[in-house]
Amino acid sequence: MNSYEKLEKAFGRIAAIEEAGAMLHWDMSVMMPHGGAEARGEQMATLKVLAHEQMTAPETAALLDAAEADPPADPWQAANLREMRRRWRHAAAVRGDLVEALSRAGTRCEMVWREARPAGDFAQVRDALAALLGLVRELAAAKAEAFGLSPYEALLDQYEPDGRVAEIDRLFDDLAAFLPGFVDEALAVQRARPAPLPPQGPFPVAAQRTLGEKLMEAVGFDFNHGRLDISLHPFCSGVPDDVRITTRYETDDFVQSLMGVLHETGHAMYERGLPAAWRRQPVGTARGMAMHESQSLLVEMQVCRGPHFLEFAAPLMREAFGGDGAAWTVENLSRLYARVAPDFIRVDADEATYPAHVILRYRLESALIAGDMTVDDLPGAWNEGMKALLGLNVPDDRVGCLQDIHWYDGAFGYFPTYTMGALAAAQIYAAARDAVPGVQDSIARGEFAPLMAWLRQNVHGRGSLLSTRNLLVEATGKPLETEAFKSHLKARYLV
Amino acid sequence: MNSYEKLEKAFGRIAAIEEAGAMLHWDMSVMMPHGGAEARGEQMATLKVLAHEQMTAPETAALLDAAEADPPADPWQAANLREMRRRWRHAAAVRGDLVEALSRAGTRCEMVWREARPAGDFAQVRDALAALLGLVRELAAAKAEAFGLSPYEALLDQYEPDGRVAEIDRLFDDLAAFLPGFVDEALAVQRARPAPLPPQGPFPVAAQRTLGEKLMEAVGFDFNHGRLDISLHPFCSGVPDDVRITTRYETDDFVQSLMGVLHETGHAMYERGLPAAWRRQPVGTARGMAMHESQSLLVEMQVCRGPHFLEFAAPLMREAFGGDGAAWTVENLSRLYARVAPDFIRVDADEATYPAHVILRYRLESALIAGDMTVDDLPGAWNEGMKALLGLNVPDDRVGCLQDIHWYDGAFGYFPTYTMGALAAAQIYAAARDAVPGVQDSIARGEFAPLMAWLRQNVHGRGSLLSTRNLLVEATGKPLETEAFKSHLKARYLV
């Protein structure tokens, strides 16, 4: 074996350890009884440390140097080597004991959060979060030094390779200028029409689940290679050949859960469509979290909340819940599914107000990482921000700063990728409509194959071959912009 | 840290890797879609190899030598060091690539078996089993050489430390001489009475599950530290603070599943009762598979199929299924639960015919490992053996040589521990009755606490402090014998 081939073997082993960790994390969120938390923390911390040790072993560094001195000619192998180096740099910047401490503190804080959240009791999780944040700031400082970035940007780079604050600020400032006026306009349009009729429940969980599975299959989800389960915070996890998505059900409303399921199905289709020849290699993984979110939002927001999909789905919804009458028409459901309504919860937000949720979190986590704010300031700053950005008075932390798992699991620097993904989703779907004539008519018949074939070829199947920027340029003709997103919003909410 | 303390750290890490592997195996059996098998195989093989590497690292051997030169005075630490050396010897006897190949071949064969078994198609799994057996024989040869044992005995030692064929032969020959006559006698007693009335189903799965959970809780199972799920082959897995047991349900019979659940609960109580101060240390683990099976059989066979427990459980059974009338009396249920009936399936077998199932498998696997028999001979030899031992003609391999997961998962040398456990269960329960006056009256009221307190003190909480032999001698006054088991059989089936 030459150096590159030895690296493939080494990184394949590291990926298998990380996959095992992902399955344990899925189990922790979906299956594990509370009393298993401490043992699980030990297991997950041990796997993280082992992966880190394998990555930072002296042989790995030597192999990387040797392979780079005689780089492979094949473009996939060359990209794989580039991504190996990227991962190695992130790992080598951090001491093993910090990796272990972060894993333990994250598991502990997440478990406390699981109890604090429903109780709306920030004080309960305050100490665990402060301890975790302290370690995350150590991590950020170490990576900042190694990469020559700001501490926040160094964290962002973990989720969005080459993502930079300057680009985010440019895009977010543009949105921040556009959206308040747009939201007012959309609300005015909405008010001028009769309110859509809400279908009457209750909507039994079993029927919601069956409908969700049917629509997942229509999108292309293969249950021989994945599962749908329940968790407090919906997510997509697992591995490309065994993708695990979750949702939560409310019996008085099926829309949020169903659209959540379709959202996670978009993530799942990306994972499943990654290049099979590059399993457990860096180049075979998804190209950052912004692209990942673009795929979930493309399926949910661009497609499934739109009128074409609802032509196909409305009869299935009526059948699932015995629905009948004016509330169940495609037109009424379309208006119901594309309703602008400023609210407290990010994951339930419409796409016009969603960026405000992200901008709030981006500002707060930037301040927390920079040390300009402490954990004790968080509830107050959150509530002030919600007032300023969306005009809402947060009644308690349950629907305020306790609502998202991210910080309580140690994920700082992740939030901006949601709105970058929303922009990319609009841009990619516009390109797909141009490239695949009749794609929307197919969707109206429940046929996702033409769309998914194009996505496999232009996004999913390319893994991490290109940078996010080049992937977008090749797929859509331009880097990330706000234009397609704005056009989409206008077409959906102002017409 | 001195050498011993460094070893505690190293073995703690190895145990965390093994725990992660156990959780992945649970998921594979209970949750994983079929298409995830290959990726799971990679993950589990990688963890096995990592644990093996950590164990056989030169530093581990050096630390063991150093610690043994200056052994700890504390008896738990001393026992822990002894068990570390035992594990090290098992690991060091085997090459890393064989560990990896065995893990992969076991996962692959188990997945094929899952399809071959319901189809009764031995040919489908033949090649996978032959490949796996070849590797197991390599393993046996390597360990035989290192331990100075026969290849079969070297495998046995993995499951039953210090278990020896001479002891098994002595006990099994005694049983083989006693049981045929006893079974005839028990059948004659049964025939002389009116047949017990079978309660009429259907017994809905949800009601079976609820009843099972209620009885698990009565025994002492803590759902904050464990789960009950469904799998093809019932088992107990997980970790002491998160014990996962499984069952399978038939709607026309609730007895087998319920007694299976109670059986696995016995295993779970052992795991849960292991000394908490020694989590993830060799001395903190269960004392071999015979003792483990003794705890499941003590709960199921000694207690829960007996009349005292049924006084408590029968009203709950009536309530669960709306049962009423003569079929639901304690007396009728007792006779139904203690019925001798030679049959094809080991896991459904009564305790009088069960040893014949074990003796058959013990003979066959001994021959397979010794090379006196090939995989192709297996179905025929199985069917001949069933005819000779129980007088039954096996109609197809589904209820013949495909019924058990063990061989298809690479577990050869495990089967004898079932019957060793049955003997130990009778011996230990007899000792508990002597030591705890009124223990059976408590059980009749659904109170397991007195029994469990005694078991925690005399068995569960001792972990691997003593050898199986010494543990039994201290708890019951003698090493493993057949007398208590025979007395139990006579008392239950001939009176």
Which secondary structure elements does this structure contain, and how are they paired or packed?
The structure is a homodimer of 495-residue chains.
Chain A: H1 3-30, H2 37-56, H3 58-69, H4 75-92, H5 96-119, H6 122-147, H7 151-159, H8 165-192, H9 205-219, E1 226-230, E2 236-239, E3 242-247, H10 255-273, H11 288-304, H12 307-321, H13 330-337, H14 354-370, H15 378-390, H16 416-435, H17 439-444, H18 449-458, H19 468-476, H20 483-493
Helix pairs in contact in A: 1-2, 1-3, 2-5, 3-4, 5-6, 6-7, 9-10, 9-12, 10-11, 11-16, 12-13, 14-15, 16-20
* CATH A-level architecture of the largest domain in chain A: Orthogonal Bundle
Number of strands of chain A: 3
Tally of helical runs of chain A: 20
How many distinct domains of chain A? 2
Oligomer: homodimer
Distance between the termini of chain A: 61 Å
Radius of gyration of chain A: 22 Å
Mean pLDDT of chain A, nearest integer? Answer: 96
How much helical structure, as a percent, in the residues of chain A? 55-70%
Order of helices and strands of chain A: HHHHHHHHHEEEHHHHHHHHHHH
Q: What pair of chains forms the biggest interface?
A: A-B, 39 and 39 residues
CATH fold topology of the largest domain in chain A: Neurolysin, domain 3
Summing up helix and strand content along with how strands pair, one would put the structural category of chain A as mainly alpha
Low-pLDDT segments of chain A? none
Gross geometry of chain A: globular
Percent range for β-strand residues of chain A: under 5%
User: Order of strands side by side in the largest beta sheet of chain A?
Assistant: 1-3-2
Largest sheet of chain A: 3 strands, mixed
CATH class division of the largest domain in chain A = Mainly Alpha
